[in-house]
Amino acid sequence: MNDLATYIPQGFGVAHAAAIGLIIALWGFYTPILKLLGRGSLNSQLHAVRLRWLQMHQGIEREHRVFDAILLGHISSSISYFGSGTLLVLAGLVSALANVNSVYLLTRSLAFVDHTMTLHLFTLCVFLLTAILAQCFFSFTYALRKMAYTFAMLGGLQATRADSPEARIMGEQSAVVLTEAVRSINTGIRGYYYAVAALFLFAGPYACIAATLTITALLYYRQLFSPTAKAIAKYVDVLKSVKS
Questions:
Q1: Closest by alpha carbon to 76, among 157, 151, 183?
Q2: pTM of the shown model
Q3: Would you list the DSSP string of 113-133?
Q4: What is the pLDDT of residue 76?
Q5: Residue range 152-156: average pLDDT?
Q6: Which burial class, exposed, middle or buried, applies to 143 when counting CB atoms under 10 A from its CB (0-12, 13-18, 19+)?
Q7: What does the pLDDT look like over 222-240, one tens digit per residue?
Q8: How far is it, in rounded angstroms, from Cα 233 to Cα 193?
Q9: What is the separation, in whole angstroms, between the first and last Cα of the chain?
Q10: 39 against 57, higher pLDDT
Q11: Cα gap 220→167, rounded to integer Å
């Protein structure tokens, strides 16, 4: 037990453990909690829209599908943008870790930083930020790979009008992979929100807990009660009623 205590940073208490655990739990279980609260994420609801989109994609001749390619290209460009930006931020955080002693001394003059924080605890906070941004980067790169899979699957669809069961299955599975790609994008973007919450660790664990709960409430509001969420829910309901 004493050996384990030597690895715990000086000044690290139960409140710090609760703050870090809350960030990890709310970020990791965001989607399951959202399903319990309502209809699920907007991305899961929009799967029906993407499925309808690809059904229309298969219902016309190949030369009229340029608009579909533009939309998919826009998604890929957005992923590349976020991935590149995250890599720059990640490089800065790794540099801060490499020079943590100097960074620690520089932050002592900042009013919002907890001046009782020890160097080891400060290093842990910087490491947490680095880990969150690293996970965001992995999410964006994985989303880019999923988009590459989606392009390959769409390219394999037949050029003529598709009305066979096999073609329907191919279109449905293409929509699944596209939805999974967007889910990875959303995970990466959501990580930025929780990185902001982790920043409040430098002000103290209770400030971090308050920031984490506030940010999570904001995210749930946008997914469940915002005008955009209500519009998407109504759109999907109408789409399903038309299909039935």
A1: 151
A2: 0.84
A3: S-TT--HHHHHHHHHHHHHHH
A4: 82
A5: 80
A6: buried
A7: 988 899 988 988 888 888 7
A8: 24
A9: 62
A10: 39
A11: 37
